[in-house]
Amino acid sequence: MTRSKCAKVFWEAVLTSMVVASLGTQNCGGAEGNSATASATADYRSPISLVSSPDGLVVYASDQTSGSLVILDAAKMTKRNEIPLRGNPRGIALSGDGSTLYVAEHGAGSVAVIDTIKQDVITRISVGKSPTSVAIANETKRLYVGNQNRHSISVIDLAETPARMIKEIPVVREPSSVAVTPDEQRVVVANLLALGRGTDPRLSAELCIINAETLELSATVKLPPGSTMVQGVCVSPDGNWAYAVHGLGRFNLPITQLERGWVNTFALSIIDIAHGTRQATMLLDDLTQGAADPHSVICSQDGSQLWISHTGVHEVSTIDIGLIHELLNGRVPEELASLQDGTQANIWVQIQQDSEKIADLENDLTALYIAGAIRRSRTGGTGPRGLALSKNGRDLFVANYYSGSVAVLDTTTGKPRGSISLGPQPERNAIRRGEIIFHDATHAFQRWHSCASCHANEGRIDGLRWDFLGDGIGNPKDTLSLLHMDKTEPMNRRATMESAYDCARGGLESTNMIVPTGQEVDDLFAYLSSLRPLPSPHLTLDGQLTEAAQRGKTLFEGKASCVKCHPAPYFTDNKMHNVGVLSANEPDGRYDTPSLIEAYRTAPYLHDGRALTLKDVLTASNEKKQHGRASALKADEIDDLVAYLLSL
């Protein structure tokens, strides 16, 4: 079975179990418990996605924490209006004529349809519980919606009244960004995280390409090993190329040093859409500092330039993508060809001589700089995310998430022309300050990563495993979710850290390699302690257990004896146990009992990520029959138990 077919089978099984549970769910409004409690975030302004009107006069911004769509005057650089929405608004798309706006209402299970003339929500389209991104195909009258926790794309027929979903297409994992080719024949989907076992040295995130005519996956494109956090994708104006921005973790190496990208680097990948292949991946960092946490990417109307927001370093990169395509095709200007890399020819000359050298770009920290193909610009704010271009291409609009404003940059010079406030921004409390530290790579040596680089989705996981030094070298561990860390002490798989507070401090000191102030540690700990779980998409419409999950709960508390080590409310006894899953360097097999809350979104499982599914934990990875009494369960009982675990 091919890799793409494996992913399809995996998520089709997941989707089958979720259809009854979450389709059509809607929330009455307000911020769902995501990064912190609603009361801690509701007053802040946090623009996350932008789109510019066809006439260039208006910019629309989805404001995630205030739960609204904000309308901005691009010429006067002022706020015009605000429309309240449900859930936490994320991705937005505008119809070709500018009359209708579509906003993903994450947590509310819907896409808001807004009449831009009336400036009001005229209807809502039910989709998966957690839509994150939307893309519109104007000619074929379709809307493509990325459903985060359903791992799928909902295809909406806008020609019908009311608009309805005509198909749900499984993709790899947590679609974060969707883009449609200009001819509307293909849809490119960025999957945020990798799907695979942590023991796979080539584990990486992937992009999916959907055939818009058949509504089937036509290709799954694997990124380089260690690729994760694929936040943004866009398509070139000619429809030939997709550009994806992502992290590129060196997870096969022990974490011994940060400099020169030994732990995390950040990349731009170029995808040949027609052939469903990756042409190249190149690093956005330079030799002495990282370009942490790229979030969004947008292409100029003529296809010659790209702009990439870096939420971790508060900058935007301008990429001469036209030049890069020339260089990848072996057309190297004489001036560039004369530059040496030490005693040898530079990487572009090497590629000119041997196209297989393109693979070396993913490890080259100087390639874009020696070519003069990249320029970094400050955004004038904190945590830039969404991007939009003006009609004339002269202005770049940047959503500065933590500043509550939209910056306007000159696309030629990269210099700021102004800033548009989304509204009053209250003084930051400890949770908000800690959230900023968590996402800020300037709180790390040479800006090589932020806490969020490895803990996606507000403190969850990156899908990889890492070899930290606290418990020795040669025993990599799967990334743990930080949810309820203050209630599940001690910390780490081997319980090497006694308190959650010490873990917060140690993350800054040992992982980010800085000396934090006491206030910074206090703030970071306040943020981490505020994290709350999202309701499982495996619950029924009214938030209850399904019949299978109810049977599984009985097994969990009885026959399977799971509750002995995983008692409520945090589903851990905070103790070390040997469940028969051994590693060569740790023959005692004793690991801290992990919490099972949000187990539906934290694959792979076990201390080294060897189990891809929860069923694997109870069957294939339970050869020694020491995982409770799971070995005594029948096949249908295993399925019921898994249904309960997925509901937590």
What labels would you give this structure?
single chain; 648 residues; alpha+beta; Methylamine Dehydrogenase, Chain H; Cytochrome Bc1 Complex, Chain D, domain 2; 3 domains; 4-stranded antiparallel β-sheet; globular; disordered N terminus
What does the model show?
By secondary structure, this protein is of the alpha+beta class. The chain has 3 domains: 1-170, YVTN repeat-like/Quinoprotein amine dehydrogenase (Methylamine Dehydrogenase, Chain H, 7 Propeller), CATH 2.130.10.10; 173-409 and 428-479, 7 Propeller (Methylamine Dehydrogenase, Chain H), CATH 2.130.10; 547-647, Cytochrome c-like domain (Cytochrome Bc1 Complex, Chain D, domain 2, Orthogonal Bundle). Strands 1-2-3-4 form a 4-stranded antiparallel beta sheet, with no helix packed on it. The longest helix is centred in the first third of the chain and has 20 residues, at 3-22.
